[in-house]
Design brief:
Radius of gyration: 22 Å
Order of helices and strands: HHHHHHHHHH
Structural class: mainly alpha
Largest sheet: none
Helix content: over 70%
Distance between the termini: 88 Å
Number of strands: 0
Shape: globular
Number of helices: 10
């Protein structure tokens, strides 16, 4: 009897590691499928096939619920983040007054987030260093030139780029680091006039630039996945150019409200 118990324990000990590997591979497969679905949603949104994209998002929801019901590794923070970004995309796609550029930006946000959760890949947000720091550099140049209109437009563009990768940052970067970065970005946004004319405000921009560089530089510089370049090239340029226009419109709208506060 004792030998039977020992034999059973040995069999379990031998099989258990394979069970863990099989479960991990199954979870990885589900996350890969969700990654592909988010990519398909982005394709459909770019093609302005919003009804098809909406149906794909519904299917994404079903698959995500299935994946999370069997997952042992997904945290509550991840669940909340994916659910929130998914809901943003759904709302924008179904909103008639939402612009094409905003729909693409939200779909890209989901795409980049799901790429973070997909195993064995270089996350797409890692390659956003150049466009973000470049845009921030244009913000500083606008201040040096005393060009208020350009400053507001460029900073709005920066905010849009930051919003696109913020959910991914939350999952991969230390919470204290992200909180400090987020607080500084919000401070600059809230006190734009001071940033334009005061040395303290300019120092905040320099610190923001430094913090962003530190975050990106701590990432291993591996070879990027080909699908990453598709997003950067085909979507990034659209977002940056069109959001510059959106930022300009937002700035002009704010100026109009200042002149007509009762309107």
């Amino acid at each position: 009897m004792k030998w039977r118990v020992v034999a059973i324990i040995l069999v379990i000990a031998l099989i258990f590691p394979y069970m863990i590997v099989a479960e991990t591979e199954n979870e990885d497969g589900m996350m890969n499928q969700l990654d592909l679905l988010s990519d398909e949603v982005l394709h459909l949104v770019k093609a302005q096939k919003y009804e098809d994209a909406s149906r794909m998002l519904n299917y994404f929801t079903d698959q995500f619920v299935l994946a999370t019901s069997t997952s042992t590794a997904m945290t509550r923070e991840t669940l909340r983040t994916v659910t929130s970004v998914h809901q943003e995309v759904v709302e924008e796609i179904n909103k008639e007054q939402s612009s094409y550029e905003t729909k693409v930006q939200k779909a890209t946000k989901l795409r980049i987030l799901m790429d973070v959760l997909s195993p064995a890949k270089e996350p797409m947000w890692h390659e956003m260093k150049e466009p973000m720091l470049s845009t921030l550099g244009e913000v500083r140049e606008s201040i040096e030139a005393g060009d208020s209109e350009s400053f507001h437009t460029q900073y709005n563009t920066f905010l849009s780029l930051y919003d696109t990768i913020y959910p991914s940052l939350k999952l991969e970067v230390e919470p204290a680091t992200i909180q400090q970065l987020h607080t500084r970005i919000q401070y600059i946004d809230q006190y734009r006039r001071d940033v334009m004319v005061k040395d303290d405000g300019k120092r905040e921009l320099e610190l923001l630039n430094s913090e962003l560089e530190d975050i990106f530089d701590t990432i291993t510089d591996d070879e990027a996945d080909p699908s990453l370049w598709w997003v950067i090239i085909s979507t990034g340029s659209i977002i940056i150019l069109t959001l510059s226009y959106v930022g300009f419109k937002k700035y002009k709208g704010g100026k109009k409200k200042e002149k007509n506060p009762e309107s």
